[in-house]
Write a structure and sequence with these properties.
- Chain A is globular and about 75 Å long.
- By secondary structure, chain A is mainly alpha-helical.
- Chain A folds into two domains: about 55 residues, no CATH class; about 240 residues, MetI-like fold (Orthogonal Bundle).
- Chain B has two domains: about 60 residues, no CATH class; about 210 residues, MetI-like fold (Orthogonal Bundle), CATH 1.10.3720.
- In chain B, helix 1 packs across helix 14.
- The longest helix of chain B has about 35 residues.
- Chain B is globular and about 75 Å long.
- The chains are: A mainly alpha, B mainly alpha.
- At the A-B interface, helix 1, helix 2, helix 4, helix 5 and helix 6 of A face helix 1, helix 4, helix 5, helix 6 and helix 9 of B.
């Protein structure tokens, strides 16, 4: 509490129309002292480590090794020559490319249907949002049971409906999609509420104006009024869903460990294995940099798209 | 004409409830399945045909086993303790910084704000390796500190509070200064109370995130008695060879219950809080 004394502004000097803390020097000092704990920890725990991971990716360090040497792009060259990196990258992109469109479209559909009527709005919103707060790791085991080849409800239901039954999580061609189902289940609710907020922001009179101009029917209203105005919200939803989707980890770590036959190994999981199971810190750092690069690229695309829209918005 | 519109409206209403209702069942199905299994005996769980309601109620013994076969209570307390410590640290660090960024003029303010924005772009997994090495050097891996320290700074919290503080009128601060309050006192006696609504939203977000976080505890925690709930569930699953789904699902229900109950009681707060990321 020592700062409290030194920062105290003498109120007597505050007569000339300003009650700023005794002059600019004192204000500057106050700013520094108040911000410095956060700034120091931000460097120690966030920005410093982010820079460190980039630097580390140019070295040969393995966890606990007494020596460290600069290898330039060595890790990246190894990565490009490593088939398992390409498998992970392909799996990551595949996972993102089906889970993002599905969870965004379902979120949009649910939001539009909820807004289209008045009854049970709160009930539906609560039900669809509930998975967002769920502990994904615990729910992963529920899905493991649901996907169980013999006692699982999915196969029992599919058998009744005459659909194919499989060991979904242990078949290389289906495991990634089974994990995607879990991801979509958790993502729909958040997308729904983001779209609901976007829909609320559309002025009512635009629909009335459109009606006067002869725009009739739900689809025309959606195409000409709702969708163009929902654009910015949609760009935002797609971006955060993509970033979250790139971060898929929990379900893979407990249900498949990247298998069977590497069919569910994604970038982040490979980074975890290299860095914390095989202790190849530098190589894992290089994988982290690829992961970071993709996430930054997505943010850049989002910013560019939203800026363009703002110009004629 | 009017009758036809009403009929069409009725048809659409029916369609709306059919689609939303079917979707709602799918969204709830995992929770229903979880509770259903948690009430069954091992024999019934592995029966060839699934029934929603258990024949022989085995709930009591499953839930008792969930708490006695593994220290589930301890996991819950760990989650609560770690989450509370992280939130308090985040607020204690973010509030003064956000106030300085929003209301004071000092050299380096713009640079600091740019750094905060840059920090927002870094996903938490990116810093995992360097922070792990750092904790190892300090000799504090596998401790509460290893769980709390890396999350003690939240750039999102700083950003959010800074945006909020900019809306606080300067007159209020000038009046406080005339009353002889120091800048430090202004942060805690004037800004903190006005920020309570934003802090509640941020608190929900922070608690939900850290209660459910699995990635970081998996990396730094080996000791069972330090595990937060998700890692505890994993220990649970590993310890029970052949996975006893009855115990496991009982534990899953217990871990999910606090947040689910809190959500149902304070839906508006939760939804506002979880969509706050949209503020960015």
């Amino acid at each position: 509490m020592a700062e409290a004394g030194t920062l105290k502004a003498p109120s007597a000097s505050a007569h000339a129309g300003t009650a700023r803390p005794a002059g600019l020097a004192a204000e500057m000092l106050a700013g520094w002292i108040l911000a410095s704990p956060a700034v120091m920890l931000m460097w120690l725990l966030l920005l410093g480590p982010a820079v460190a991971v980039v630097v580390l990716s140019f070295t040969d360090w393995t966890f606990g090794a007494p020596t460290i040497a600069w290898v330039g792009l060595g890790n990246y060259a190894e990565m490009l020559a490593d088939p398992s990196f390409w498998v992970s990258l392909k799996n990551t992109l595949l996972y993102v490319s089906f889970s993002v469109p599905l969870s965004v479209l379902l979120g949009l559909l649910v939001a539009l249907l909820i807004e289209a009527g008045t009854s049970l709005r709160g009930f539906y919103r609560a039900v669809y949002f509930l998975p967002v707060t769920a502990t994904l790791l615990a729910m992963a085991f529920v899905f493991q049971f649901a996907f169980h080849p013999t006692i699982g409800v999915v196969n029992q239901l599919f058998a009744v409906l005459g659909l194919p039954t499989l060991d979904w999580l242990k078949t290389p061609s289906t495991a990634l999609y089974a994990l995607g189902v879990i991801g979509i289940w958790q993502a729909v609710g958040l997308n729904m509420v983001l779209f609901l907020a976007g829909l609320k922001a559309i002025p009512r009179d635009l629909y009335e104006a459109a009606a006067l101009d002869g725009v009739d029917g739900a689809w025309e209203r959606f195409r000409l009024v709702t969708w163009p105005l929902l654009g910015p919200a949609a760009v935002f939803v797609v971006t955060i869903t993509s970033i979250r989707s790139f971060q898929v980890f929990d379900t893979i770590a407990v249900l498949t460990q990247g298998g069977p036959n590497k069919s569910t190994s994604v970038l982040l999981f490979q980074m975890y294995q290299e860095g914390f199971s095989f202790l190849r810190s530098a190589y894992a750092a290089a994988l982290t940099c690829v992961f970071l690069g993709i996430v930054l690229l997505l943010t850049l695309v989002q910013t560019t798209l939203l800026d363009k829209r703002a110009h004629y918005g | 004409m009017k009758g036809r519109t009403n009929l069409a409206g009725l048809g659409f209403g029916l369609f709306r409830h059919l689609v939303l209702g079917a979707g709602a069942i799918l969204m709830l199905a995992p929770f229903i399945l979880m509770v259903s299994i948690s009430l069954k005996t091992q024999g019934e769980i592995y029966a060839p045909h699934f029934h929603l309601l258990p024949d022989g109620w085995n709930g009591l013994s499953n839930y008792a086993a969930a708490f006695t076969k593994q220290p589930l209570g301890r996991y819950l307390l760990n989650g609560l303790f770690v989450g509370a410590c992280i939130f308090v640290a985040q607020v204690a660090l973010a509030l003064p910084c956000a106030y300085a960024l929003a209301k004071l003029r000092w050299h380096g303010r713009e640079t600091t704000f740019v750094l905060v924005l840059a920090g927002l772009l870094v996903p938490p997994q990116v810093t995992a390796i360097p922070i792990y090495v750092m904790l190892w050097k300090f000799g504090i891996l596998d401790s509460y500190l290893a769980l709390i320290l890396p999350s003690s700074i939240s750039v999102f919290g700083i950003f959010l509070m800074r945006q909020f503080f900019r809306t606080v009128p300067d007159d209020l601060l000038d009046a406080a200064r005339l009353d002889g309050l120091s800048e430090f006192a202004i942060v805690w006696r004037i800004m903190l109370p006005t920020a309570i609504p934003a802090l509640v939203s941020f608190g929900i977000l922070s608690l939900v995130w850290h209660w459910n976080d699995f990635f970081w505890p998996l990396i730094v925690i080996q000791s069972e008695q330090l595990a937060p709930p998700p890692l505890g569930i994993l220990f649970f699953a590993n310890a029970e060879a052949g996975t006893n789904y009855g115990y496991l699902m009982a534990a899953a229900v217990v871990v999910n219950a606090p947040l689910a109950a809190a959500f149902l009681f304070a839906q508006r707060w939760f939804i506002d809080s979880m969509t706050m990321t949209a503020v960015k």
